[in-house]
Specification:
It contains 15 helices and 21 strands. The chain is of the alpha/beta class and 458 residues long. The chain has three domains: 136 residues, Methylthiotransferase, N-terminal domain (Rossmann fold), CATH 3.40.50.12160; 247 residues, Alpha-Beta Horseshoe (pyruvate-formate lyase- activating enzyme); 60 residues, OB fold (Dihydrolipoamide Acetyltransferase, E2P) (Beta Barrel), CATH 2.40.50.140. A six-stranded parallel β-sheet has the order 2-1-3-4-5-6, sandwiched between helices. The protein has a five-stranded mixed beta barrel with strand order 17-18-19-21-20. The longest helix is centred in the C-terminal third of the chain and has 24 residues. It is globular, with a radius of gyration of 23 Å. 43% of the residues are buried. The structure holds 5'-deoxyadenosine and iron/sulfur cluster (SF4). The site of iron/sulfur cluster has 10 residues, from helix 7. Iron/sulfur cluster binds next to helix 7.
């Protein structure tokens, strides 16, 4: 790579789907001769890959744009190059040209389904700049298949762990959620296309693959033979035909946990004992008002069934407190479910009213201080459960895939089968380089609230 290649800086907000999209944007732009830089200061192109799920995440984008505006102004004043600023992802999809109206410093706006056209957009923006005009590019088309067709031609960033998007968008329309509007309707990629990407990852030495989708367990990709592939069948096929040592999938909807998929957890060795299965609330009244298409009883039955085939499975979930109309009694039902399930980890949020969603228009919104109190009570219990789960790992031997460097040069970090972060001090930087990327058996020697410490077993 020449030293005068253009530089790209991407900041990723939000979920794993955005992390995947960022990796694909890097692939696309590296193809165009860009190199990645870790700071916005020296970038030719800055992309903010944004999240719209809650108000806080969306507002953060605007404060970041404000800071970048100051940086750009300084660059111009100093006679330096002026960076192109692009806003991508779900805020871009939801707000479109409104972003440029509010923040004229933004040159390009594109959604989660159009980033494969980044090279064209960038060229058009550069051309406008050269002509002394303000680029005002907006591309927020929502059709998914063209993107994947185009991306499949590009190389895939090689690592030991990788995300592979197999499904996108959602047709469930939970009444609080922006995803059906920002990511579009449910779309399953074709079986052959998924396998083509899987084989590339496999050939590049990837050991752990995480199949991604907003509703990944609703996957129903068609094959060229006209057969429909479920997620369960796809996992089994990947386990049989690749060298992946670990297969994970996220995020799942409780209504799509089929018996076939539950059975996989007991039958396929590569399918990791970890399941993220959001229930959002423990109250039937609230899950109904959320339009979740399941009851608490069916959720609990799924948990029971999966524990029958995989007793050691680590369960994770998402919770929303203070959904409109949630009473103290409803919230206590959430606490009951949490105590019954006993989660290994979980994510919990205060309900955030999102523009255009049905729940935002309800007139029985819960007061902010009540939401905070409920969140604190819930998180105290979830933290206690996570700590207990981590403490119970001490003394056990488990395989860890060391795919990240730690705080010190001699530290490596990886994931246990149960998704816990495990770190090890290997003594020297050289030893760290030697063990990086390896899947090794480790003895867990201590536990913290969010991570474990391990040592090698000979
Ligand atoms: N307010 C709060 N939390 C939300 N989530 C989705 N929409 C909202 C909202 N409007 C949470 C849900 C979902 C996770 C990704 O984000 O728990 O599972
Ligand atoms: Fe949003 Fe519900 Fe779809 Fe999940 S299932 S993406 S919460 S609408």
């Amino acid at each position: 790579m020449t030293t005068d290649s253009k530089k790209l800086y991407i900041k990723t907000y939000g979920c794993q789907m955005n992390v995947y999209d960022t990796e694909r944007m890097v692939d696309v732009m590296v193809h165009e001769g860009y190199t990645v830089t870790e700071t916005p200061d020296d970038a030719d192109l800055i992309v903010l890959n944004t999240c719209h799920i809650r108000e806080k995440a969306a507002e953060k984008v605007y404060s970041d744009i404000g800071r970048l505006r100051v940086m750009k102004q300084k660059q111009v004043k100093n006679g330096g190059k002026e960076t192109l600023l692009a806003v991508g992802g779900c805020v871009a999809q939801a707000e479109g040209s409104e972003i440029q109206r509010r923040m004229p410093v933004v040159d390009m706006v594109f959604g989660p389904q159009t980033y494969h056209r980044l090279p064209e957009m960038t060229k058009a923006a550069d051309k406008a700049k050269q002509a002394g005009e303000r680029p005002r590019i907006v591309d927020t088309d929502l059709s998914v298949s063209e993107k994947f067709d185009s991306l499949s031609q590009k190389p895939i960033t090689p690592k030991k762990t990788a995300f592979l998007t197999i499904q996108e968008g959602c047709d469930k329309f939970c009444t609080y959620c922006v995803v059906p509007y920002t990511r579009g309707g449910e779309f399953s990629r074709r079986f052959e296309d998924v396998m083509q990407d899987a084989v590339k990852l496999n050939d590049a030495g990837v050991l752990e693959v995480t199949l991604l989708g907003q509703n990944v367990n609703a996957y129903h990709g068609m094959s060229a033979l006209g057969e429909e592939w479920s997620l369960a069948r796809l996992i089994r096929h990947l386990a049989d035909t690749t060298d992946f040592k670990r297969i994970r999938y996220t995020t799942s909807h409780p209504g799509d946990m089929t018996d076939e998929l539950i059975a996989i957890h007991g039958e396929v060795e590569q399918c990791m004992p970890y399941l993220h299965l959001p229930v959002q609330s423990g109250s039937d009244k609230i899950v109904k008002a959320m339009n979740r298409h399941h009851t608490i009883a069916t959720y609990m039955k799924t948990i029971e069934d999966i524990r029958k085939v995989r007793p050691d499975i680590a369960l994770s979930g998402d919770f929303i407190v203070g959904f409109p109309g949630e009473t103290d009694a409803d919230f206590q039902k959430t606490m009951d479910v949490v105590r019954q399930v006993n989660y290994a980890q979980a994510y919990s949020f205060m309900y955030s009213a999102r523009p255009g969603t049905p729940a935002a228009a309800q007139d029985d919104q819960v007061e902010s201080h009540v939401k905070s109190e409920r969140l604190a009570e819930l998180q105290a219990e979830l933290n206690r459960q996570q700590r207990a789960f981590n403490d119970a790992s001490v003394g056990k031997i488990m395989p860890v895939l060391l795919d990240r460097t730690g705080k010190e040069a001699s530290h490596l970090v990886g994931r246990s089968p149960y998704m816990q972060a495990v770190y090890v001090d290997v003594g020297t930087e050289e030893a760290a380089a030697q063990h990086f990327g390896k899947l090794v058996d480790m003895k867990i020697i201590s536990a913290g609230p969010r991570s474990l410490k391990g040592e090698f077993v000979n």
